[in-house]
Design brief:
By secondary structure, the protein is α+β, with helices and mostly antiparallel strands. Helices cover 63% and strands 8% of the residues. Among the domains are: 1-30 and 270-346 and 357-398, no CATH class; 399-434 and 661-778, Multidrug efflux transporter AcrB transmembrane fold (Up-down Bundle), CATH 1.20.1640. Mean pLDDT is 83; it is low at 774-778. Residues 181-391 form the Membrane transport protein MMPL domain.
């Protein structure tokens, strides 16, 4: 005789396996952390996202080479290692540019500079081609050529005797930069040699950054010098490290929690079958969530995947309720029909709680909401309609009498303490009302960097002279040309800031791409070929120079005078695309362009902000990124609180429709509200302010608490009440263990989620048990 239960189970397993294979082949996992940042709904958020996602510093890795503590190396040995690594990196397809202090130019760079240096030269003026200036310049060149240690490149004299190319390069060079030793960058104490690695991938394209970091470590190992220590810093590196830490912690803690829960369920049910079958709805929930998010968004974020699987882990409560209520009096189908109304109401209200996240201002949280809701309902429906049909009709739960006495004893104990519990809750509420602030919106508190990472990053940035990441200067305009004209007007004012030592230096896109108006003006300053030759002839008369030796120079000036001006589109096809592309950003919804103006070594922050307010330059903004980020986080935290409030109101309405009793609604709602108060108060007591992740976790606490409360107040016979108590106790223990393990993870995000859910679930269980009564079934 064919066993229908086993056939159905086999079909279910095969569907899950087929789904897993399909997901494995088609799933696109996104690693862009920008999805967990605010939407571009304001100009400030646009500016912040542009700077964070694709600003000039986000695609840069800072590398430092130094001797290990037990070793001694000379600066010459370190410089050789630097140059060798730089050569390897320049061959890497994942690297756009390597800057280590070497004066290296590719053929493409040299050709471009030879063509356009006159149009890019900020020092070109009416005196440049005067007889006096050329004569003075040529005498200087002559002196350098006779010197045993000339300060000019002899090969450039015939093609650029006036030194225009050098002037352009000096204009591009930052005034804040490391010292050079043996041709490469070094720290001032000569103990560390440095380099910039510009990646082709953005800082938050984690998979690509990870591949490059692997290449860097491989190249460093190939040096074969175990006396050298490699230090890496930069947004891409820390994004990769943060993901690695989260993955390792989740895997390690999930395995630990999984082993504990498996052993516990085996002990409770005295068999391995319930454990194996309980995993079926859980696996269904995870796959349903993944497929739903992938279908809606075309991809799933790695953080959504990790947290989503963790959140739907609470759906193991559904099969626990079924197995715990299986007694000799009926089949699994009959048992499920008995508990389904209560279970269904709990699922609906929990789903409503997660629905609030769909209105969040972060795409990542919206993905998490879709994942959780779809996983939740998938687990509930399969527990209702599939799981009872695959459970053997011969399986019945035989509980330990000691376990029954334990769970009954907890309920009896808490039932004697309702006023004590109420006193604690009221005291906690008063405590919270007395606190000046319960939430923390400081973005630095959410940073994944360890104190050691921060120290290394600060040191390398200080040595290399990278842009100040706290303050962001931007200029917006309808077109690139409008912005370039504004930047050219802004430059004198920025020079005054440098002179007053308010800032150390700055980077302007107009240095790399002057406005067309400025380029044409410079072309107008270039003399006609015959005029230039005449002036030059007079200037070199009586010297060793032969006028015919400078024919290439004359031809280049003639060509430059007739060149088509550089445009944004044209410069993006040149070596300057790295600099220009990292500064210019096309705004969304056809609102024009914006350009970043990186500031270096900001020494007087308040004076900088005051200066910005006094400028009458259209489109100019100087923004305190940390302050704006704090405001943005505060806005979304407030939004989360509002969503939780509205979701709670809807949940109460659904509970009333399901329970049809104001008294029962209060007996469900009061434990939930009380558990939220106690959870927040506990965090506050230990000096922890709530962030956005604490608030999102409270939604899960609400859902879990509702499930507990509903089963505690379920009207049924005394025997089933014992089973209700036991099922809720087992569910609570699994939840507290799983999320309690997460609390001991390193990342603050995992600590926030784990601690909040573990505490909230425990409080919800205790308080719900205190209102449990034994009444007749409906």
């Amino acid at each position: 005789m064919i066993n229908k239960n086993r056939i159905l189970l086999l079909v279910w397993v095969l569907i899950l396996l087929a789904s897993a294979v399909w997901v494995g082949k088609t799933l696109k996992v996104n690693s862009d952390l920008g999805q967990f940042m605010p939407q571009e709904d304001t100009i400030e958020n646009q500016l912040m996202l542009a700077a964070v996602k694709s600003g000039p510093g986000t695609s840069v890795l800072m590398l430092g080479l130094s001797a290990k503590k037990s070793s001694q190396l000379t600066s010459l040995e370190l410089s050789r290692a630097n140059k060798k690594l730089a050569r390897q990196f320049r061959k890497n397809k994942r690297v756009r540019q390597v800057i280590n202090g070497e004066l290296r130019f590719s053929k493409e760079h040299k050709k471009f500079l030879m063509q356009y240096h006159w149009l890019l030269n900020t020092r070109l003026d009416k005196e440049t081609f005067s007889h006096a200036n050329i004569s003075q310049r040529m005498h200087y060149v002559l002196e350098q050529l006779r010197s045993p240690a000339p300060l000019i490149d002899k090969s450039l004299v015939p093609v650029d005797p006036l030194g225009s190319i050098i002037q352009v390069l000096r204009g591009w060079a930052s005034k804040v930069r490391p010292s050079r030793e043996h041709g490469v960058w070094f720290s001032r104490d000569k103990q560390q040699t440095l380099m910039f690695v510009h990646t082709r991938a953005g800082g938050f394209e984690i998979n690509k950054q990870q591949a490059l970091i692997k290449d860097i470590n491989k190249a460093f190992t190939a040096l074969g010098n175990d006396k050298i220590k490699l230090t890496i810093s930069g947004p891409g590196y820390y994004a990769v490290e943060y993901r690695r830490i989260i993955r390792e912690d989740i895997v390690r803690l999930s395995i630990s929690a999984g082993i504990f829960i498996s052993l516990m369920l085996i002990l409770v049910y005295r068999a391995i079958t319930p454990l194996m079958l309980a995993l079926m709805p859980l696996a269904t929930a995870a796959l349903a969530g993944i497929i739903a998010v992938s279908t809606v968004y075309g991809h799933i974020h790695g953080i959504t995947l990790a947290f989503g699987v963790t959140l739907v882990g609470v759906t193991i409560d559904y099969p626990i309720h079924l197995f715990t209520h299986l007694r000799n009096k009926g089949s699994a189908l009959v048992t499920m029909r008995g508990i389904w109304p209560t279970l269904r109401l709990g699922v609906l209200t929990t789903g409503i709680g997660f629905t609030a996240m769909l209105l969040a201002g972060f795409e990542g949280l919206k993905q998490l909401a879709v994942f959780s809701i779809c996983g939740l309902f998938a687990a509930a429906l399969t527990t209702r309609y599939l799981l009872p049909r695959v459970v053997s009709p011969h399986y019945h739960y035989q509980s330990w009498s000691g376990l029954e006495r334990l769970t009954d004893g907890i309920v009896r104990l808490t039932a004697k303490l309702p006023w004590a519990i109420a006193l604690v809750v009221v005291s906690a509420l008063i405590w919270l009302l007395m606190q000046p602030q319960l939430t923390d919106h400081d973005p630095k508190k959410l940073t994944p960097l360890t104190s050691e990472h921060k120290k290394i990053d600060k040191k390398l940035r200080s040595i290399i002279g990278t842009s100040d990441t706290r303050f962001l200067m931007t200029v917006t305009g309808k077109s690139v040309q409008q912005i370039l004209v504004t930047l050219e007007k802004l430059e004198p004012a920025l020079n005054k800031l440098v002179d007053k030592k308010i800032i150390g230096s700055y980077i302007l896109a107009s240095r790399y791409l002057p406005s067309i108006k400025k380029q044409k003006y410079r072309q107008s300053l270039l003399p006609e070929n015959d005029t230039l030759k005449t002036v030059f002839q007079h200037a070199v008369t009586g010297t060793i120079f032969n006028i015919d030796s400078f024919q290439v120079f004359f031809d280049n000036v003639k060509t430059a005078k007739n060149l088509p001006p550089l445009t944004y589109e044209r410069v993006m096809k040149t070596p300057l695309s790295i600099q220009v592309g990292g500064l210019f950003h096309l705004r969304t919804q056809g609102r024009g362009w914006m350009v970043l103006v990186p500031l270096q070594k900001i020494k007087k922050r308040e004076e900088l902000l005051t200066w910005a307010e006094q400028q009458n330059i259209p489109g100019l903004r100087v923004m305190d990124v940390r302050s704006k980020a704090t405001t943005a986080i505060q806005t979304y935290s407030n939004e989360a609180i509002q969503l939780i409030a509205w979701g709670s109101i809807i949940i109460v309405l659904v509970l009333w429709l399901g329970l049809r009793s104001i008294r029962d609604v209060l007996r469900v709602a009061l434990p939930i509200v009380s558990s939220l108060i106690l959870t927040i108060a506990t965090w506050n007591l230990f000096g922890v302010k709530l962030n956005i992740f604490h608030l999102v976790s409270l939604l899960l606490v609400i859902g879990i608490g509702i499930d507990y409360a509903l089963f505690f107040i379920r009207r049924t016979n005394e025997e089933d009440h014992h089973l209700d108590y036991m099922a809720v106790w087992v569910s609570n223990l699994t939840t507290v263990v799983v999320f309690g393990f997460l609390f001991f993870a390193y990342p603050l995000v995992l600590q926030a989620v784990g601690g909040t859910v573990a505490m909230g679930a425990l409080y919800a269980y205790i308080i719900s048990a205190s209102v449990a009564t034994k009444t007749q079934a409906i």
